[in-house]
Design a protein that fits this description.
Helix content: 25-40%
Low-confidence stretches: none
CATH architecture of the largest domain: 2-Layer Sandwich
Number of helices: 12
Distance between the termini: 42 Å
Mean pLDDT: 96
Structural class: alpha+beta
Largest sheet: 9 strands, mixed
Number of strands: 22
CATH class of the largest domain: Alpha Beta
CATH topology of the largest domain: D-amino Acid Aminotransferase, Chain A, domain 1
CATH superfamily of the largest domain: ATP-grasp fold, B domain
Oligomer: single chain
Length: 423
């Protein structure tokens, strides 16, 4: 039996808590700090995800068997190294491994060292040099990325010189992303269709999950600025068996070998954000944890007990662990606050059937919510994620949008084309 600590407070953590709570092997689930949604499945603990000493003390005092880290921040800050130094089992990469997400520049160099296909790039700390580079290339669109963690908002796909120059000014002059934007990576634009492949990794074995497709842009038709993700669906038909085989051979296997060659400990989750063109995959970026909102559509399709998989990761016995998936399709549509991904308005009452007890094929994930005098109110940019599952993607989409019509908060906006690419 397992006492488990889940770190984080977003939609991803609600989805993970929901899955973990279905395991007969779970004795007690703690979520730090959690949200009103996670409280349905375990005990929320008022400890910030960034307070590593307090999380460590809690794990020791509560005899936690396994800790699962949801967000990237604590991983980049070295929480895994701290926990393991105290003999505690924790799912996630070492601080060295977390650089795959923590530094776009480091990640690019790692990919080049190990022959992982990715876009050509250059890195800059000086605004004038970066502008000169773009002028010299004179090839648009072009991609500008803040080097560090920017909550999914540090990437600009610049359609022309003016928008590229503006993105560089935001990062390097106006310090919009603070320390995360002191260095920028400028990449060639990759053509094709995006897909996400998450994988379990124990340092010896890497096992891909079912593919998903995220929708980063805020408006329908992939228009408007990038967000943390406005929705996702799984399976992603762009990831054919041939593509999946290539991803394993050209991306996942070299990643595993590269980590081993550089003696980088990595026992957790890795996420490959891919651009696929004519069945040829290239890596846009790596993330070092479950994606959000990809988790909301991938985890419901997992048949195998997640606790068994987490145990196999920390004991490095993943090769012996069978992992099975449901054939169903899943869709998640994010309901965002007014102004998102810019300045948002919070504190708006949420009306509607959030519990969704009437339909087993639809559930609502809480991300940016809080309780005030018993009333659920908005707190954050991505407020809710409505998830529908069904045998067909088309029906899953219909069920999801039907459920959305019953939910309301002031300023609520969402994309109306999530999953459309998959049909």
């Amino acid at each position: 039996m397992t006492r488990l600590l889940l770190i984080g407070s977003g939609g991803r953590e609600h989805a993970l808590a929901r899955k973990l709570a279905s395991s007969p092997k779970l004795t007690q689930l703690f979520i730090a700090p959690g949200n009103p949604g996670t409280a349905q499945y375990g005990k929320n603990v008022p400890i910030s995800e960034s307070d590593i000493p307090a999380l460590l003390a809690f794990a020791k005092s509560e005899s936690i068997d396994i800790t699962l880290v949801g967000p990237e921040g604590p991983l980049v800050a070295g929480i895994v190294d701290r926990f393991e130094s105290q003999g505690l089992k924790i799912v996630g990469p070492s601080q060295a491994g977390a650089q795959l997400e923590g530094s776009k520049n480091w990640s690019k160099a790692f990919m080049i060292r190990h022959g992982i296909p990715t876009a050509k790039s250059a890195a800059f700390t000086e605004y004038a040099e970066a502008v000169s580079y773009i002028k010299e290339k004179n090839n648009f669109p072009i991609v500008i990325k803040a080097d560090g963690l920017a909550a999914g908002k540090g990437v600009t796909v610049a359609a022309d010189f003016d928008s590229a120059e503006s993105a560089l000014k935001d990062a390097l002059v106006n310090q919009k992303f603070k320390d995360a934007g002191k260095l920028v990576v400028i990449e060639d634009f990759l053509k094709g269709e995006e897909a996400s492949i998450l994988a379990f990794i124990d340092g010896k074995t890497i096992v891909p999950m079912v593919a998903a497709q995220d929708h980063k842009a805020v408006f329908d038709g992939d228009t408007g600025p990038n967000t943390g993700g406005m929705g996702a669906y799984s399976p992603a038909k762009i990831v054919t068996p041939k593509v999946l085989q290539r991803v394993h051979e050209q991306v996942l296997a070299p990643l595993l070998a590269g980590l081993a060659k550089e003696n980088i400990a990595y026992k957790g989750i890795v996420y490959a954000g891919l651009m696929i063109d004519n069945e040829v995959p290239q890596v846009i970026e790596f993330n070092v944890r479950f994606g959000d909102p990809e988790t909301q559509v991938v985890v419901p399709r997992l048949k195998t007990d997640l606790i068994d998989i987490l145990n196999a990761i920390v004991t490095q016995t993943l090769i012996q662990q069978p992992i099975e998936w449901r054939d169903d399709a899943a869709v998640c549509v994010v309901l965002a606050a007014k102004g998102y991904p810019g300045d948002i308005e919070s504190g708006k009452p949420i009306d509607g059937d959030i519990s969704r007890t009437s339909d087993p094929d639809v559930h609502v994930i809480q991300a940016g919510t809080t309780l005030q005098d018993g009333q659920l109110i908005t707190k954050g940019g991505r407020v809710l994620g409505v998830v529908g599952t069904d045998h067909s993607l088309a029906t899953a989409i219909q069920k999801t949008y039907a459920a959305i019509s019953e939910i309301h908060f002031e300023g609520m906006h969402f994309r109306r084309d999530i999953g459309k690419k998959g049909i």
